[in-house]
Design goal:
alpha/beta; Metallo-beta-lactamase, Chain A; Rossmann fold; 2 domains; seven-stranded mixed β-sheet; 30% helix
């Protein structure tokens, strides 16, 4: 079994790994690296047309954003994913194509992709040519999966993005009874210092910060990924507003988040049992909370920023790379009473990282805006932290090799040094291939 790394190698973004045998070539994920300029996997169109199947770990664009191009390039095989991943991917890709209009994608390619999705259920191993493949809950976002691949001689486990801790929505990753010769693991938070505080402590600090801002008459902007983080943030605010801990102010939901909420609601069977019970056995549906005000028109958006009231806005995009957050920043970034709260990973080269690092001015649509609002970060991550990442290999029977991807160089290298004491640990470079 051979592995070729066409993306997410020594970087975060454009996840794309080829697994090949003498008979079969498959891709694990096919994403884009979003930034000032989008970057794509370093695989040629002729190679894409030779692929037999594509297996997707989850819906985020850094794992799915290249799929329409693959069909535009002439691939006509299938894409395999869980039902929620397929539904969320269609929404996120449509939004990405509308906003970014990437030149390497045709409408015909997107339509072709939609015709080739195949649903895979968790825990059911199936044959694909000479490979046996199984999807396992990864705990990252709705429908996310670890992918196990075996050719009968060697076995590989790919984490995609993984989270071992339960959240309001999901149980942690299911690592029971895993066996593999090789592991491909993410390393988004692979540095020694990347140890997350307890969730309750983070929530309390977040709530105190929001209350402080609304008490002083300010507006709180919370940019978030439409899938995963947005739902967690909204449920935190909703729960604490209902309990009286968080002051009740208008809570606006903008961007693709509302569509994602509906998909979560329709696929609640993939959520934690507690979430299922809340919907099935009570009159209160957290996905349709009366505390949420959905922003559906530009006119409403203008009212949100112009109203003389404290409010909270949860919107996309999570790294400030486009979407409604840019409008809100253009109107509110200069106000000293306002606050920007970052709740997810901010990749190098993004506006989100620049804001996190304390940039004093930003440029939106050719206009320079001086930063007056406060910027704060609270780790409500759907990724494993360093302690979790270190614990994963020991849970996999027979493991010998670990390939560390989806992390900035320093973080991936720190994790490699730790795991290299027991395993053959490698941080692949773009385009590198290995045999396991």
């Amino acid at each position: 079994m051979n592995l070729s790394f066409f993306g997410a190698a020594d970087e975060v973004g454009r996840s794309c790994i080829m697994v090949s045998t003498e008979q079969t070539k498959i891709l694990l994920d096919a994403g884009v690296k979003l930034g000032e300029t989008d970057e794509y996997p370093v695989i040629g169109d002729s190679q894409l047309r030779e692929i037999d199947g594509i297996f997707v770990s989850h819906a985020h664009l850094d794992h799915t954003g290249y799929l329409p191009h693959i069909y535009t390039a002439g691939y006509r095989g299938d894409v395999f994913a869980t039902k929620p991943t397929i539904e969320l991917t269609n929404v996120l890709l449509s939004d990405y194509l509308r906003i970014s209009n990437p030149p390497n994608i045709s409408k015909a390619g997107m339509a072709e992709l939609s015709r080739h999705f195949k649903i895979i259920e968790y825990g059911k191993a199936f044959k694909f040519r000479d490979l046996t493949i199984k999807f396992i809950p990864a705990g990252h976002i709705l429908g996310s999966a670890l992918i196990s691949v075996s050719d009968g001689k060697k076995r590989l486990v790919y984490t995609g993005d993984i989270n071992l801790m339960k959240t309001r929505l999901l149980d942690g990753a299911d690592l029971k009874n895993l066996e593999a010769d090789a592991l491909i693991t993410e390393s988004t938070y692979g540095a020694k210092k990347d140890i997350f505080p307890k969730e309750h402590d983070t929530e309390q600090k977040l709530l105190h910060s929001v209350n402080d801002t609304v008490k002083n008459g300010g507006k709180v902007l919370v940019p978030s990924f439409a899938v995963g983080r947005a739902q967690e943030v909204l449920f935190i605010f909703d729960d604490y507003m209902n309990s009286g801990v968080l002051q009740k102010v208008p809570l606006y939901v903008d961007g693709m988040i509302n569509k994602a909420l509906r998909i979560h609601r329709h696929n609640v069977i993939y959520c934690r049992e507690e979430m299922q019970r809340r919907i099935l056995m009570s009159d209160y549906d957290p996905f349709k909370s009366p505390n949420f005000t959905i922003v559906e028109t530009k006119g409403t958006r203008n009212k949100v920023v112009s109203k003389d009231e404290s409010s909270i806005v949860v919107t996309t995009s999570g790294m400030l790379s486009g979407g409604p957050i840019m409008f809100y920043l253009s109107k509110l970034a200069g106000g000293s009473l306002n606050k920007l709260i970052l709740v997810g990973y901010q990749a190098e080269g993004t506006l989100g990282r620049a804001m996190q690092d304390g940039v004093k001015a930003i440029n939106i649509n050719g206009k320079e805006i001086k930063i007056g609002l406060r910027v704060e970060t609270y780790h409500l991550s759907a990724h494993a932290d360093r302690a979790q990442l270190e614990s994963i290999p020991a849970k996999i029977k027979g493991l010998r090799s670990v390939f560390i991807v989806h992390g900035e160089h320093s973080k991936a290298e720190e994790l490699r040094q730790a795991l290299g004491q027991k395993y053959n640990a490698v941080v692949p470079k773009l385009g590198e291939s290995f045999t396991i």
